[in-house]
Amino acid sequence: MKKVFQTNLYRTTRRFVLSAAALLMAAFPTQADNAPLASPIEGRWDISVDANGKVLPSWLEVRHSGTKTLVGQFTGFSGSARPISVVHFKDGKFDFAIPPQWEHGESDLKVEGTVSGDAITGTLVTPDGKSYSYKGVRAPSLRGKPTPAWGAPIKLTGGNEIKGWHATGENQWVAENGILRSPKSGANLVTDQKFGDFKLHIEFRIPKGSNSGVYLRGRYEVQITDGKGMEPSLDQMGAVYGFITPSEMVAKDAGEWNTFDITLVGRMLTLVANGKTVISNQEIPGITGGALDSNEGEPGPLYIQGDHGPVEYRNIVITPAK
């Protein structure tokens, strides 16, 4: 009799515990139960802005935060990637606003648009009140690419002539004994040839207070600054401008030669600066300000910045994938 009573008590207690657990789970759903369905605007978008007939590249990323809020980041055709605190989305239409960065004007930069499958279209209003139309497509992931077999190295500097490059405006660059030198702010310099995946060796020096950058595929700027003694940051030496902070600051004194050794496969970047790995196989989310275009799935040129002060480059060698 005692054994039967204990068995019945165990069964009753077990049913009670299971029922209580079910009630608790219903009252307090797990994160998986509460996981939001992806909104059509979520993801990364490569954008082309029509600025009075001139195409200017931009980029947008939207993701959910919790169950109800959409947030993101945006790269305009100047400056760096900026956070978006809220993206409003309803019935296929979206809009957001972000404070001005380098633009003229005091108002927010405002973007509105419509999603249609893997395309977006809409209007961008700059802080000075100018309105431009744009169109965008989903950015390619470029993930999961195997390490390629490398081809023959291509030397892009040497001698006293500028070969294999062209200036984006009136040229101020000169070639002297294998050194490409921009004595003052002026045009940027772009390779005639375009590249997909590659390894790059490049050496540079700048005077105190100057600034430059190396654009990979013409879209992703690796920053060059007179940064010795500074903390690593998104806008200083060795950063992918606005996106990736290097692990440490390894800049040499102003006027000394520095080196970058860069490997870019898909979106994955490794950067060795002055012999130290400061970025190790990290993903570049999207284009940086000043990009030549937003066609991320295509090969692109190398370009070196000459519009932010004096700079010199030498021993530029790129090794493309076969």
Automatic annotation (TrEMBL):
GO MF entries: hydrolase activity
Annotated 3-keto-alpha-glucoside-1,2-lyase/3-keto-2-hydroxy-glucal hydratase domain residues: 154-318
One Pfam family per UniProt: 3keto-disac_hyd
Superkingdom as given in the UniProt entry: Bacteria
The keyword Signal belongs to this UniProt entry's keyword annotation: yes
Alphabetically ordered keywords of this record: Signal
InterPro entries registered for this protein in UniProt: AL/BT2_dom
This protein's name: 3-keto-alpha-glucoside-1,2-lyase/3-keto-2-hydroxy-glucal hydratase domain-containing protein
